[in-house]
Design a protein that fits this description.
It comes from Araneus ventricosus. The protein has about 70 residues and is mostly beta strands. Helix content is about 0%, strand content about 40%. It is built from no helices and four strands. The protein is elongated and about 45 Å long. The termini are far apart.
């Protein structure tokens, strides 16, 4: 029996901010989170929409610019 994954939820926040989320539907391998501020450090993790499985590890990145 195959399991269909309807999508992912991407969680992100500024280094000291509150978590926000975006839903990504379908079998997507890349995604760009928009409206991030220049020169800021962000944290990200993803989960499956159907709730199965563990959340990903939290990764940190910094946007370019000032």
């Amino acid at each position: 029996m195959s399991h269909f994954l309807s999508g992912y939820i991407i969680y992100y926040k500024k280094e000291y901010g509150s978590w926000k989320s975006e839903e990504v539907f379908g079998d997507i391998y890349t995604y760009t989170v928009g409206n991030l501020q220049c020169g800021m450090r962000y944290e990200f993790y993803i989960t499956a929409m159907d709730g199965n499985g563990e959340k990903s590890e939290v990764i940190t990145g910094r946007t370019s610019g000032r």
